[in-house]
Amino acid sequence: MAFAKFLTCDLLPQRRAQSTRRNIRKTSLLLSYKGLGDDLAGVCRTITTGRITNLDLSGNEIDVEGAYLLASAIQTGKCSLTSLFLSYNRIRDEGACSIGAALAEKCPSLTILDLTRNRIGDAGFRQIILATQTGKSSLTKLNIWGNNIGNDGAHQLALALQSGNCSLIDLNIGSLIDAEGAYDIAAALQTGKHSLKSLSLSTNTLINHCVSKTIAASLHFSRPLSQVIKYALLNYADTCNELKALLLLAAHFRYADGVNDVLCCLVFKRYDSESELENEP
Fold first, then answer.
1. d(Cα 99, Cα 97) in Å, to the nearest integer?
2. pTM
C-alpha cells in the first residue's frame, strides 16, 4: 500500500549546528479509521526510517499481532515518534505488554500515548507504567480511558507515583477502579514524589463522582486532601451519597476535622430533607 499520500509535513526542518548533513523533514502519518487491521508492514517500515514523529492509527481494528509489529518497529532503535495514537483498537493485555516493553528500552522520544478503548487490563497497564519508571522513557501523557483496569492496576500506579521515578504528567485512567483503588492513588499523591499535574478518574463508574473530583482537585491545586474535602463540601457535595463518599474518604486518611465537617453536613442534609417532607401538602 502506498502511504506517501497520507504524509503531511507538520514541522519545519530542524537545523543542526556544525553539520553539513541535509535537513530531514519530520512528518505525521495520519491513518485513523482506514480499515488496516494488522496489515501494518508498510507502516512499520516507515517508522524505522526515523522520519515519522506523529502516528495516528486509531480505529483500525488492530489486534495483538499488529501491536507486536509496532513494538518490533519501535525496538529497532530507529523510531523517532513523539506521539502514538492507537485508540479504539483491540490490542488487549498482550499488545500493551509488547508496546510497554519496547518503550521501556527504546524510543525515548515518545511523549504521548493514546490507548483508549483497547480491552487492556491490569497486566497490560502494569507494563506501560513500568516503562515510565526505567529512566529511558519520556512518556508524559497517557490516555488509557475505557479499558478494563481495576484495583490491581491502581495499586501499580500508586507504587510508581510513590517511587518518584514515574515520568507521567497527564493521565486519564477511566476504567473499573473502585474506592479501594482510588484511595491507593490518593495516598500516593499525598507523598508529593510524583510529577503528575493532571489526573482524570471521573469515568470510573465504581468511584463516587464526588470522590474522584476531590482527588483530582487535590492534585490540580497542590493541596492536601483534608483541605480539598472542605472545599468539596462547600462547592459540589450536594447529595447524601456524595457526602457519605467524602466521609469514607476522610475516615480512610484519618482526617478527624474532615470527618467532623462531613458528619455535620450529613446531619443538616438529613434535617433539610425531613423539613421538606413535613412541608409537602
1. 6
2. 0.77
